[in-house]
Specification:
Order of helices and strands: HHHHHHHEEH
Oligomer: single chain
Strand order of the largest sheet: 1-2
Structural class: mainly alpha
Largest sheet: 2 strands, antiparallel
Length: 175
């Protein structure tokens, strides 16, 4: 399945990084088109900006442009794009799983790391301290747990928005 095209905000970021790279590298105006096409072809594997994908292709192109512009903070942001996206997905799924329960999302995440026999990084941006392979495994674990909760919710009386309910699966006895 092909990636969706870049958003308007990503397009603006591309042009901002492209302009900075051209200025830093001292590329004359008549050579900028060739430079743009070369970067898109080498890093994104596409000929036109409209064909660039939202995730991997965009990150690779902007990483190159930031490095060419000597913007190392920007380059660091694009270099960890996959980790940021997976971390955001994991956080969202965990928040959905623990909604309506007394369990805090961080405590659940600590449990996932304990289950994986890994020390919990314990930082705000914990996903930057974890390998991509482990992030994929953690994402698979929490998505599997969410799927199982959704599948059994009507059977055992678990409403994911309110937490477990004893009365929904064990109605009160009639006298």
């Amino acid at each position: 399945m092909p990636e969706r095209p870049i958003t308007a905000a990503q397009r603006a970021a591309f042009w901002r990084h492209f302009g900075a790279a051209c200025q830093t590298q001292g590329i004359p105006a008549d050579e900028r088109e060739a430079y743009r096409r070369a970067v898109l072809r080498e890093e994104g594997g596409v000929e036109h900006l409209a064909d660039l994908g939202r995730t991997h292709g965009f990150d690779a192109v902007c990483l190159r442009l930031c490095l060419d512009a000597e913007d190392y903070d920007g380059a660091a942001r694009y270099e960890v794009g996959d980790a940021r996206r997976m971390g955001a997905i994991i956080d969202a799924v965990i928040r959905e799983i623990v909604a309506g329960t007394p369990t805090a999302p961080e405590a659940y995440l600590r449990g996932v790391f304990a289950h994986a026999h890994m020390p919990f990084p314990g930082t705000e941006e914990w996903y930057l301290d974890v390998s991509t392979d482990l992030l994929r495994s953690i994402m698979q674990m929490v998505l599997t747990h969410r799927r199982r909760l959704h599948r059994r919710a009507p059977v055992v009386g678990v409403d994911l928005a309110r937490g477990p309910s004893w009365t929904s699966c064990h109605p009160p006895r009639q006298p």
